[in-house]
Amino acid sequence: MPDTKPGTPHEFKAEIRQLLDIITHSIYTNREIFLRELISNASDALDKLRFETGRGTTAANPDLPLEIRITTDKDAGILTIADTGLGMTRDELIENIGTIAKSGSAEFLKNLADNKDAAPGIIGRFGVGFYSVFMVAKKVVLTTKSLIPDQPAVHWESDGSGSYDLADGPEDAARGTRLEIHLKDEAKEFADPERLKAIIRKHSNFISFPIFVGQDKVNTVPALWRESKFSITPEQYKEFHEFLTFDSEEPLLTIHVAVDAPVQFTALLFIPKKPMDLFGMRPDARGLDLYVRRVLIQHETKDLLPEFLGFVRGVVDTEDLPLNLSRETLQENLVLRKIQSTITKQVLERLQKLAKDDPDAYAAFWREHGRVMKLGYGDYIHREAFAELVRFESSALAPTPEAPAPLTSLADYVTRAKSGQKHIHYLSGPSRAALDLSPNLEIFRDKGLEVLYLLEPIDEFVMESVRSYKDFTLAPADKIDPADLAAFESTVAADTPPLSPEQQAALPSLAAAVKNLLGDRITDVRVSTRLRKSPSCLVSPDGDPSAGMQKIMRMLAKDETPPRKVLEINADHPLLRNLLRIHQTRPDDPFLATAANQLLDAALLLDGYLADPHQMVDRVTTLLTDASGWYADLKNT
Fold it and tell me: For residue 262, is the peptide bond before it cis, meaning its omega torsion is within 30 degrees of 0?
């Protein structure tokens, strides 16, 4: 039995002395967490008092309001925190004042032993309970009186050096606990009421009991997520969204959930109409605020939502996590993973409902947040939901002067697919205008087949990840075998007379000649069945990735050399008909070499591979000079 005579000194336990030595002799970058810890202790005391009185326990000073009051003396450097909770008896004070021993000291000290140089960071990440006060205090005087009416008040005092004194408290002390903190010289900032208010708003703003600093109530915003969603008005949601995000615009979606199993938590989430980081000043600014019993544990907790839902803002509050959870433990915490799974499912379901009920609103959402959403290509757990939510521009949906090109889903594409179609076709390019002119699109336009437009590099990864949708395979248009489209009739009548038998027989010789002239710049030359209006195009050899994916791979490898591909030539184009005539009559004519290199350079330019256009420009100038002379002579005759 410990000695409990008034004024008797007591020694701290060994592990507490070790903890106090660390706290009092280190420099901290996150000292403000001491106030969060002390307010949390006060809130717990008030909660326990409410529970006791609720079950009929008679309490001392029953008319006292349940509140936390903080006062300061800036000149003396004293900070006082008082609550009207259940208080403690002398025996309870001796037993419980070292709550750190029950709430993380072993883990705390182990982490510190493993990494002694990181004391400030480790301490800042652990809730070290009552003893965190010694980060800022040179002396602490605690007075407490139990809710039990006939129990006397108790006086506790320590400078954190390894011992504490116990004495009887004043006879007129009211129920609750009062902490008088004598601040270190370097911690006098915590005697500034405005500094205290800022800390409370950051960490303890949603404590359910009123917190006063002087005469000002600080926690004026209610923990709205704890209320029933059926009792909350749209105006309240909007006000809370503005308080949380500083965004005065009404959110696009509000998601309010309360879950009891498998983990108990509540969440209030907002999907803003526009990105919060418009200027890219904080590219990593994402995540939800994590609370444990209304106390902020971590701001912008990235582990609560996958990266592709990083535009979601809001709070999550759970009873199933300890208050002193470290960031490292958060990443491995099973409870947190279950919360993430539930929240992610809720957000995806609400987005799917928005897409179904209001396609225009969802299209507006996609234009603002689509770049972030596309990061979901790596989330295989939610791949089906992700496939339903992605949107693209399409060759079938043109823009108007008044509005941008409509967006389409994979589901809508399927409804427009032709009978017998097995693929969802897509094509990558830097812009819609570039894709509209792509030679690879001509056969699809001729057959009346829709092609999705991929306008950002990440879209290639999206398609590689999704791979298929319902009974359709996602296929790059530049890799399609024209024979696979033979079953679809042309929608445009041919306006070029067929080749004569002699010309048909000479085509292979022309292709061989062009291949010989271009040398190792290409892998092969063949007569195209995909081209309709363009004279030539480049096609990747069989087995190669799509052109868009190749560009990404070459960019990552910093390879700027033009790729070696198959050059296809269009025998129905007037230019190729002219080259065929020249080849039949003068196979060694130097114009064939000029034309062959021009056809290849033009194809490279359209595909974005022509790094050095100087030779092409010089060649075009020469051709225009010759052609303009012939044209002038023709017009003058």
Answer: yes
∠ CA 330-336-337 to the nearest 5 degrees? 115
Tokens 């890799």 correspond to: 479
Type of residue found at 523: T
266 bridge partner residues: 258, 317
The contacts of residue 8 (CB under 8 Å, 6+ apart) are: 165, 166
Using the 8-state DSSP alphabet, how is residue 392 labeled? B
Element (H, E) at 21: helix 14-24
Helix ranges restricted to H, 283-376: 327-332, 334-357, 359-373
DSSP-derived 3-state class of residue 304: helix
d(CA 79, CA 137): 9
Residues paired with residue 427 on neighbouring β-strands, in sequence order: 453
C-beta separation of 259 from 342 below 8 A: yes
Question: What are the tens digits of pLDDT across the range 421-456?
Answer: 999 999 999 999 999 999 999 999 999 999 999 999
Structure tokens at 555: 């960019």
Q: What is the CA radius of gyration of the chain?
A: 37
Would you state the torsion angle of the CA atoms of residues 155, 174, 189, 133, taken in this order, to the nearest 10 degrees? 40
What are all long-range contacts of 48-53, with beta carbons under 8 Å and residues at least 24 apart? 48/85, 48/86, 49/84, 49/85, 49/86, 49/147, 49/175, 52/86, 52/147
The whole-angstrom separation of Cα 514 and Cα 603 is: 14
Q: Give me the pLDDT at residue 128, please.
A: 54
CA distance 608 to 463: 21
Sign, CA dihedral 519-524-527-533, equals: negative
Q: Is 247:241 a contact under the CB 8 Å cutoff?
A: yes
Q: What global pTM score does this model have? A: 0.79
- Residues forming a β-bridge with 254: 270
Asked whether the beta carbons of 452 and 435 are under 8 A apart, the reply is no
Q: What contacts 138, CB < 8 A, 6 or more positions away?
A: 159, 160, 182, 183, 184
Tell me the β-bridge partners of 180. 80, 141
Strand 423-428 relative to strand 451-454: parallel, antiparallel, unpaired? Answer: parallel
Could you tell me how many residues make up the chain?
A: 637
Q: Over the stretch 192-249, which tens digit does the pLDDT of each residue have? A: 999 999 999 988 999 989 999 999 999 988 899 999 999 999 999 999 999 898 888 9
Alpha helices in 437-546 (DSSP H): 442-447, 458-466, 501-518
